Amino acid sequence: MPLSLRRLWTRAFLIERPSIGLSLFRLAVAFTVGAHMIPSFFHMDENYLSTAFKTTNGLFFPGGLLALVARSPDWVVGMFTALFFIAWAAFALGLWAQLGAILMTLTCYYFYALNNFHIGTLSFDILLVTLFLMCCTGYHGDFLSLDSLLAPPRHGAGRGGDAQAYRRLRPFVIQRLLQLQLAWTFWYTALSKMSGQGNWLWDNPYYYLMRYPAIGVVRNFPFRGWLAEQPELCKLLGLTLIGFEYTLPFLWFMPRTRTFGILLGIAFQLMLWLTLHVPTIFLFLFPAMMLLFVPPERLVDWIQARRALTAAGPHGLLVYDGACGFCLASLQRLRVLDLFGWLDLRDFRPVPDLTSLHPGLTVERCRSEMVLIEPGGRITGGFEAFRRLCLRLPLLWPLAPLVYLPGAGRVGGWVYRWVAAHRYLLHRNPACATNQCGWSGDSTKT
User: Fold this and answer.
1) 366: burial class by Cβ within 10 Å (0-12, 13-18, 19+)?
2) Please, which residues bridge with residue 381 across strands?
3) Domain coordinates in residue numbering, the chain
4) Taking each helix axis from N to C terminus, what angle separates 173-193 and 122-135, rounded to the nearest 10 degrees?
5) Is 435 left (phi over 0), alpha (psi -120 to 50) or beta?
6) Are 341 and 311 in contact (CB under 8 A)?
């Protein structure tokens, strides 16, 4: 292979780059799979159980596999349903994300083989290809995942996550293949419009779509009736669509036009959703795949810039017990969640006068709960401090609606106090190797 081609191949596929974009894409994939599969479970008797009307796809699956799946009794179908929800939740949360992706994909294939009638569509085939690529990597849980909170830091001992996970370098090959998958989907769609029955070059399918009954694939959007009376304009729009589908992927790959191409592509997907009854993949997955063309280094630079701005402003102060190994591991996870560096951490033990930090601080309070002091002087502790952090740290924002539900303060406060009072039960955790909470006789440390 010539040296220039070897360099191009290495730069395109083998180079290591931050995995933050792929980690965020995991959330879009999980949402798309859930939107595609979960509604089908609401009517098990019609879709998957022995009472359902079923068809199979002999072109996609070998006959032996279809025959084996067809013999599934209802209890096996129920087991696969439970396995899907467990694997889907694990993948969405990023807990053993690669294993979750593999099990979730296997269950999707199982239900596809069980009944092609309800979920066997071209869009679902595209989704399965995406899932296969996500199964091939173990690093889409590097960021915004439970895996990123449980993994050991790159530097130093113990566990508790890596606060620099968003900068971690990984092979770029999977993200590149996902980019090529999306590009080829657009090119294939354009090619299909130029061949076969109903050729868009010689015929006028867009005109026919506008004249379909209201129950067809076209929504009743404004100007639909007017377009239905404009065959020449519809012909021009159809040809323009072919050119657009050919051209758009090139805009994504070229740095100078990438931003414009991504915005144009997302607008195109929204237009499809507003005018046609399209599958969920067009609205949920394709825009997220377009964002995979954003250079991950740009995302890292944006986070670094936000951290620099935060460093120049007021910070929150979290006071903790530095003699508790479990607490130290928990705080390391908070460092991972504190993406923009808003929170300062302070061990209360070396501080000679706690009132110098805040008049409401006492040794007893600092031993029994973590204490948050916000820039305006507001002081909270325990579960209430965690609730305030859910409002302050962007990566905890998804939890804010849950911790502020009616009654959540009472339940969360009780759980927090119980854990603090029974800290010794957690000493099998590797973070508590010193076991100081247990041998010190102080069972209220946190």
Assistant:
1) buried
2) 371
3) 15-171, 176-312, 314-439
4) 160
5) left
6) yes
Please give the C-alpha separations between residue 259 and each of 69, 249, 267, 292, 300, in angstroms, as whole numbers.
Answer: 45, 12, 12, 11, 17
Measured distance CA(334)–CA(336) in Å, rounded: 5
- Are 46 and 53 contacting, i.e. CB atoms less than 8 angstroms apart? yes
Given a contact cutoff of 8 angstroms between Cβ atoms, the answer to whether 178 and 27 are in contact is no
CA-CA distance, 72 to 78, in Å (whole number)?
Answer: 10
Q: What is the pLDDT of residue 435?
A: 44
Whole-number pLDDT of residue 215 = 65
- Between strands 379-381 and 371-373, the pairing is antiparallel
Query: CA 16, CA 20: separation in Å to the nearest integer?
Result: 12
Q: In angstroms, rounded to a whole number, what is the distance separating the alpha carbons of residues 53 and 51?
A: 7
State residue 360's pLDDT score: 85
User: Residue 364 in contact with residue 370, Cβ under 8 Å?
Assistant: no
- Return the pLDDT at 20: 93
Reading the block at residue 444, the tokens are 């209220």
pLDDT (0 to 100) of residue 424 = 55
Rg (CA), the chain: 27
The reported pLDDT for the residue numbered 203 is 87
311-361 pLDDT, tens digit per residue, is: 889 999 998 888 777 777 788 888 889 999 899 998 888 888 888 888 888
pLDDT beneath 70, residues of the chain: 1, 3, 152-160, 196-198, 214-215, 421-446
Question: Side by side, which strands form the sheet with 343-347?
Answer: 343-347, 316-320, 371-373, 379-381
Per-residue confidence (pLDDT) for residue 376, from 0 to 100: 86
Task: Give Cα separations from 93 to 31, 154, 363 (angstroms).
Answer: 11, 22, 37
Specify the pLDDT at position 67: 92
